[in-house]
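Q:
My hope is that you can spare some time for a protein that puzzles me. I hope you can help me see how the letters and the tokens relate. Thank you; the sequence and its tokens follow:
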Amino acid sequence: VVNAIRQTFPPQEWETAFLVAAAESSGDVNAVNAVTGDHGLFQINRGNFEALSRILGVPINEQTLRDPLLNARAARILWERSQGWTPWAVKPNVFSYFAARDAGRV
């Protein structure tokens, strides 16, 4: 998991990416949300499979998203397209903490 994040995200995002993956899947590459059908480390939503397949040039599906590197690559694309972590339903206080820390407030 750590290697996939380090190979995919810029160094300044490693810590946040790890926390997002931990919050979304507890670091379980086989995690599947029974309600939404989101898959893998970063809980990639089915609604993104087709576009991500085109962009990455490989099939994106329930099986391929078990690969931590491919899941992280898919997450990186979503992160870039949204210009941040907004696609993930992680508690805002995680990001507030990092923003405060980076600003020297904690």
Notes: The two ends are 27 Å apart (CA to CA). The mean pLDDT is 88.
